[in-house]
Amino acid sequence: MTLLHRLAPLAIAALLTACATTTLPPAPTAEPAALPAPTPAVDTAPATEAAAPVALRAMGADLLEDSLRPGEKVDLDAPDANADLWARVRKGFQLQDLDDDWVRKAEAWYSARPDYVERMTTRGSRYLFHIVDEVEKRGMPTELALLPFIESAFVTHAVSSAKATGMWQFMPATGRDFDLKQNIFRDDRRDVLASTRAALDYLGRLHKMFGDWHLALAAYNWGQGNVQKAIVRNQRLGRPTDYASLKLPDETRYYVPKLQAVKNIVLAPDRFALSLPPVANHPYFLSVKIERDLDVALAAELAGLTLETFQQFNPQMNKPVILAAATPQVLLPYEQASAFAENLARHPGPLATWTAWVVPKTMSPAEAARRTGMAEAALRELNRIPPKMLVKAGSTLLVPRAEHVRDDVSERLADTASLNLAPDAPPLRRISVKAGKSDTVAGIAARYKVKAEQVAQWNNVGRSARFKPGQAVVVYTAFKPTTVAKASASTRSSTKAKASARAAKAPAARTLAKERGGKGRNVVASAAP
């Protein structure tokens, strides 16, 4: 019997989110059609002469070595490998149980959704062995291996309304604190290995800080500073400082009970009329090293997987290329790993058709497209450049890789690449104008070269409206008013003389003043909102 028959099948087409605040972004699209190759100056690392190594070595009919565990052989026929991983999880439970209305509420929610629980646990079965292994290495409670069930339902691309991302739901700043790179090429918050390492590092730090796993979990959800403040508040009031006694927002109050409910389901699924997919006690995926940049689509093809399936194990890539300097390995289901390594070693053509180009000066996307041999629309789409924006000098763009380019993207660029944009027009300023006797929406629009619909919208009036004399009219324009400082008493006479001279030299300004309806027409500018 094969590994895929022993383990729960992939439920890729039925990915759901953990809660209403979590959304799934669109799956990355396949790379664009081949385009003329550019000859940009690329920040690269020298290519090695050796071909990409086969990281998995055949060690018998069913024995492979995982690069995550050098020297350790994986034998699918070993008794331990076919044991029930859920039993191993149950054996490692250490947290003090909660038993309150919040737990009952969570149990009822899951019990009423057996299909959801089945999809969630089937997804989780891909990653559980690795997570349980990492938890046990650190001597942590195995309840922590269940945390992605309530964080993301094990959806590796999950994004919350607060921009927390990945299976472990890291916020951008917290992810950076734990060395999860986030740039135009990749987001390590979605990386299965990196995010698991970071999450357990973070939980370990929080447990050391609070000395209690329930408080550590509350801090993981709400933030350590907030939990510390809640503890100090209770200390001042002479109250207990345990999880159940703190004043917490409802989301955090419900957080640990949800984990308790999942724990209770794992302990006794029959009690809740639920079932858990069988999970064998050996790696579901293996890590295969790569030494050259590699197109995502080609990697999936070499592994014999669909693009969507490949991305379930390697969800961190933001672009259609894997940069070996920053992502030196790919994860693959056990049975595809060996075939991938062999096919990669034998592949005769180029491995990457994309590379990075550092923009030498601020330029329009049209100019960047010309320089790199791309269609402007393709360049914009691939690099996510909005309309009416310039690409600033020093930005990195993904562009087609010329046939003569032998070097891969350097580690420095792969780790620090960014895209910086600037408006392709002067910034607009908010102008407040006092209307004259005959000023209309259309007249103001024509005077400041903007659309009448915009003037009407800015002032909450109809397109054909007429303004009252002296009424303040708002306009957003590139016009930059002259700043006039108050003159001192000793310079007022000379200032008047200079003003007369300026008026004689500025007939256009006098004409504009006349059009505005006489004296007292003040124009006041402020920064755009």
TrEMBL record:
Domain LysM: 431-475
InterPro entries on file: LysM, LysM_dom_sf, Lysozyme-like_dom_sf, Transglycosylase_SLT_dom_1
Segment forming the signal sequence: 1-20
Chain positions covered by the region annotation Disordered: 486-529
Keywords: Signal
Bias type Low complexity, positions: 486-511
Top-level taxon of origin: Bacteria
PANTHER family per the UniProt record, alphabetical: MEMBRANE-BOUND LYTIC MUREIN TRANSGLYCOSYLASE C, SOLUBLE LYTIC MUREIN TRANSGLYCOSYLASE-RELATED
Family (UniProt): Belongs to the transglycosylase Slt family.
Name listed for the protein in its UniProt record: Transglycosylase SLT domain-containing protein
Organism: Pelomonas margarita
